[in-house]
Design brief:
The complex is a heterodimer of chains A (about 375) and B (about 300). Chain A is of the alpha+beta class and about 375 residues long. Chain A has a domain at about 315-380. Chain A is about 25% helix and about 20% strand. The longest helix of chain A has 17 residues, at about 365-380. Chain A is globular. The termini of chain A are far apart. The relative contact order of chain B is 0.11. Helices cover about 60% and strands about 0% of the residues of chain B. In chain B, α1 (about 20-40) runs parallel beside α3 (about 75-85), α2 (about 45-65) runs parallel beside α4 and α3 (about 75-85) runs parallel beside α5. Classes of the chains: A alpha+beta (about 375), B mainly alpha (about 300). Chains A and B meet through β13, β14, α7, α11 and α12 of A and α1 of B.
C-alpha cells in the first residue's frame, strides 16, 4: 500500500484479458432499431419525424429538448414504424422512435471540415451539439454543455479518461489501439478551440472526457458525422468468443448475443455496462444507446448467492469510498428515510460506484440504499 | 438461454470477505495466547475457556430462539466473545463465573441491544467488569500453579523488583490470555498482515499511554519501567484485540485516532492514580461509550471539498 495512489477504490478481478486482444469488428443491425428519446442526462429529445416517414442514415429523428439535451439520429435508412414506449436497459418504459431497417444504409451527405483551426469556438461547439454527443463513459452528460464555459479562460487541462475502470470492458482500450489518431485529433479540437465550463470538475480548471466521446468529437467536427456508432464489448464467462463490436446505436442487445455465437453456459445474469455500475437486464430485447459500453453475460449471480447480514461496523466501506463519505452511516440514514441527516453527511457526494457494496463483509446492499435515497432527493429537487 | 434473468442494483459482483471469515481470523489470531495460557496455567484454564465459549454460544442460540430470530452463531462472533472473556479470566476461577459472564455478555450486552453490530460496548469487557464487581475476590485471585497471587503491576506499584523477561514471555500471574506479550503480538501481526485490523487504534493507544506514564509515572521515561507497564496487565490483549473490536470503535479514521488517545489517557490515569493497578477494561468500555460522540465530530470531508473555489 506504499504506492502513491488515490485514496479509496478497489481492484476486483478485471476480466479484461477475455476481450482485450479482440479487434473491433463491424456488425450490422437487424430489422428493427429503437431509439429512446432519453439516453442522456437532461431533457428528453423531441421527435422531428412521424410514423410512416422515410429516414436516411445520419438523419436527425429527434431534436434537443432544451439546452441540456441533445438530438438523436437514425443509424440506418428505413421508415419510422412507431413512436411509443419501449423498455430500456434500466427496465423503465421510455418513449422511443422505432425504425424499420431497409438494410440499404443510404446516408445523408456529411459536411467535411479539412482544417478545424479555421472554425470558430462557437462553430465547433455547435457541431458537437448538433452531432448529439454525450459522455459515452456511462453518464451521458451532453458534451457541448460540458464544453460551454461561463468563464472561458479558467480551464487549463483537458483530461482524456482512458482508464476504463470497469472490469471486463475493453472498448476504450481497443479504440486507443486502433484509432489513436482520432483520439489525439479529437483532443486537439477540444483543447485548441471549444474549451471551458463551470460544471463539476471545471472548478479545478480541467475537463474530463471519455475516449469514445473524444473520438465522437473528432467525427463530428472533421467528418460532419453525428453520433451513430459506439464500441460495445460483449464478454463475460458465458461467452465463448468475447468480442468488441462497432455497433449501430439503436440495435438490440439480443442481436449482439446472437452474433457472438453459442454461449458456453446459460447466463444467469446479463449486465449492460460494467459489473460495478452497469444495469442488470430484465430482458435482452432492449436497444443499445449512446452510453452502452458493454454487454456482460455471467453464469453466476454473486449478488443473489449471498445474504445481507448485520453490519459489524468494520469500516471497509469508508476505506474504499472514493467520495470519502461513510456509506454505512449513509445507508442507515437512507433506510430510515432521514433525508436531512443524509444531506448533512454528504450523501449527494456518492457517485454510486459500487465499491462499498462490493467490499462489505456483511454483504449489505449499501450502494443500492444510498442510490435510492439520492434518487428520491433529486426527484424532489426537480419538482 | 434461460427465460428468467437475475436482476439487482449495481454492483453485480461481491468480494470474498465475509463476517464469519473475519471472526475466524480473530479466533486463529487468539490461538497463540490461548495455547500459551493453557501451558502456563494448566489444563483447568482450558476448561475455563471452554465453559466461557460454550456458554456464549448456547446463550446466543437460546436468545435467538426466544426472540424468534434466525440463529446467528454461524457468524462466529459469539465464539470470539466467549474466547475473549475466557482469556480474561483468572486461571483458577470457579467455572460458574465464566459461564455467568458469557451469558451476561451475550444476553444483556449484545442481544438485548439488537444483536451483532448493535452493542454499544465490548461484550467481553462489559462482562468482565460485571464479574469483577460481582465476584471481586474470585476475579482478582491470580494464585495458581506455583504463582503467588501478586501480579507484576501490583509489585511494581509497591516498589518491588519484577523480572521483565518473564513478563514479556508471560511466565507471570495474571488472567489466562493476557500474560504473554509475545503470544499476543504473534496473533496481532497475523491480523495486521491479513488487514483485519490496522495500526491506528493500537498504536495511538500505546503511544499515548507510554507518554502519559512517562510524564506522570514515578520513574519518567525509564525504558525498564515503561516496558513493565506495556508487558504487564491487560494492555496488550486490550490494545490489539479489544480496542480494535469493529463494533465498538469509531468507524471514521480521524475518530480512531481520537479514540486511541482517549484510551491511552484513561489507562494511564487508572494505572497511575487509580485504586486498582489495572484499568484497561474500564478504559475501553468508557471509551466505547464516547464513540457516538467521537464519530459525530470526526465525520470525513468528502473528496474535493476544502479546496479553494476558483
Amino acid at each position: 500500500m506504499a504506492k502513491h495512489s488515490f485514496r479509496g477504490g478497489l481492484h476486483p478481478y478485471d476480466g479484461k484479458e477475455l476481450s482485450k486482444d479482440r479487434p473491433i469488428i463491424d456488425i450490422l443491425p437487424g430489422k428493427e432499431l429503437v431509439f429512446p428519446l432519453s439516453q442522456h442526462i437532461g431533457a428528453p429529445a423531441v421527435p422531428v419525424v412521424k410514423k410512416g416517414d422515410k429516414v436516411l442514415r445520419g438523419q436527425m429523428i429527434a431534436d434537443a429538448g432544451g439546452f441540456v439535451s441533445v438530438p438523436i439520429y437514425s443509424t440506418v435508412s428505413g421508415s419510422v414504424t412507431a413512436i411509443e414506449k419501449r423498455r430500456v436497459v434500466t427496465g423503465d418504459m421510455v418513449e422511443s422512435i422505432v425504425i424499420a431497417n431497409d438494410s440499404k444504409y443510404e446516408e445523408v451527405k456529411y459536411q467535411i471540415t479539412k482544417d478545424f483551426s479555421k472554425l470558430s469556438k462557437e462553430d465547433i461547439r455547435e457541431k458537437i451539439r448538433i452531432a448529439g454527443i454525450v459522455g459515452m463513459g456511462g453518464a451521458g452528460f451532453p458534451t457541448h454543455v460540458k464544453l460551454s464555459p461561463k468563464e472561458p479562460d479558467k480551464i487549463d487541462y483537458c483530461i482524456a479518461n482512458c482508464a476504463e475502470c470497469e472490469p471486463y470492458l475493453t472498448s476504450d482500450y481497443r479504440r486507443m489501439i486502433e484509432e489513436p489518431q482520432k483520439l489525439i485529433d479529437g483532443l486537439k479540437i477540444i483543447l485548441s478551440r471549444a474549451i471551458n465550463c463551470d460544471m463539476l470538475p471545471a472548478d479545478a480548471g480541467c475537463i474530463v472526457n471519455n475516449v469514445d466521446t473524444i473520438v465522437a468529437v473528432y467525427n463530428a467536427v472533421m467528418e460532419g458525422k453525428p453520433l451513430m456508432e459506439r464500441i460495445v464489448t460483449v464478454t463475460g464467462d458465458c461467452v465463448r468468443k468475447p468480442q468488441n463490436y462497432r455497433v449501430h446505436i439503436g440495435m438490440m442487445y439480443s442481436e449482439l448475443i446472437n452474433e457472438v455465437g453459442a454461449l458456453r453456459y446459460d447466463p444467469v445474469k446479463i449486465v449492460s455496462g460494467g459489473p460495478m455500475m452497469g444495469f442488470g437486464l430484465i430482458d435482452t430485447n432492449v436497444p443499445t444507446t449512446k452510453t452502452a459500453s458493454a454487454l456482460l453475460c455471467m453464469s453466476r449471480d454473486e449478488v443473489s448467492e449471498v445474504k445481507p447480514s448485520a453490519c459489524i461496523n468494520c469500516g471497509m466501506c469508508a476505506q474504499v469510498c472514493p467520495g470519502r463519505v461513510v456509506p454505512k452511516i449513509l445507508s442507515d440514514m437512507a433506510e430510515h428515510g432521514d433525508e436531512e441527516g443524509f444531506l448533512a453527511k454528504n450523501g449527494m457526494e456518492c457517485c454510486e460506484c459500487g465499491c462499498c457494496s462490493y467490499i462489505c463483509p456483511a454483504k449489505r446492499n449499501l450502494t443500492q440504499s444510498i442510490k435510492s435515497m439520492r434518487k428520491t432527493i433529486l426527484a424532489k429537487r426537480k419538482r | 438461454m434461460g427465460d428468467l434473468l437475475n436482476v439487482s442494483s449495481n454492483p453485480h459482483i461481491r468480494s470474498k470477505v465475509s463476517t464469519d471469515k473475519i471472526m475466524l481470523c480473530v479466533i486463529i489470531a487468539l490461538i497463540p495466547a490461548t495455547v500459551f495460557g493453557v501451558i502456563n496455567f494448566g489444563v483447568y484454564s482450558l476448561l475455563v475457556i471452554g465453559a466461557s465459549i460454550a456458554s456464549a454460544v448456547l446463550t446466543e442460540i437460546l436468545c435467538c430462539i426466544v426472540m424468534k430470530r434466525k440463529i446467528s452463531v454461524t457468524d462466529l462472533s459469539a465464539v470470539v466473545t466467549g474466547l475473549l472473556l475466557g482469556l480474561n479470566m483468572p486461571p483458577a476461577v470457579p467455572l460458574y463465573i465464566p459461564i455467568m459472564g458469557s451469558a451476561f455478555a451475550i444476553f444483556v450486552v449484545k442481544m438485548l441491544f439488537g444483536g451483532l453490530g448493535q452493542n454499544f460496548m465490548n461484550p467481553a469487557l462489559a462482562a468482565r467488569c460485571f464479574l469483577v464487581i460481582s465476584f471481586p475476590a474470585a476475579m482478582t485471585n491470580f494464585a495458581c500453579d506455583g504463582y503467588s497471587g501478586a501480579t507484576p503491576l501490583a509489585l511494581l506499584r509497591a516498589g518491588e523488583e519484577v523480572n521483565l523477561m518473564n513478563m514479556i514471555t508471560g511466565r507471570i500471574p495474571g488472567t489466562i490470555g493476557e500474560t504473554s506479550m509475545i503470544a499476543i503480538l504473534i496473533g496481532a501481526v497475523f491480523l495486521l498482515l491479513l488487514g483485519v485490523i490496522d495500526l491506528i487504534v493500537p498504536m495511538t493507544y500505546l503511544v499515548t499511554f507510554v507518554i502519559f506514564i512517562g510524564i506522570f509515572g514515578d520513574y519518567g521515561f525509564n525504558s525498564y519501567y515503561i516496558f513493565c507497564h506495556l508487558a504487564g496487565g491487560g494492555i496488550m490483549l486490550g490494545a490489539w484485540f479489544m480496542a480494535t473490536d469493529y463494533v465498538t470503535r469509531p468507524i471514521t479514521k480521524m475518530g480512531q485516532y481520537v479514540y486511541g488517545i482517549i484510551l491511552g489517557l484513561l489507562t494511564g490515569i487508572f494505572r497511575i492514580f487509580g485504586a486498582s493497578v489495572e484499568g484497561v477494561s474500564y478504559s475501553i468500555i468508557i471509551a466505547n461509550l464516547l464513540v457516538p460522540l467521537i464519530e459525530k465530530f470526526t465525520y470525513p470531508k468528502p473528496f474535493g471539498r476544502g479546496g479553494e473555489r476558483r
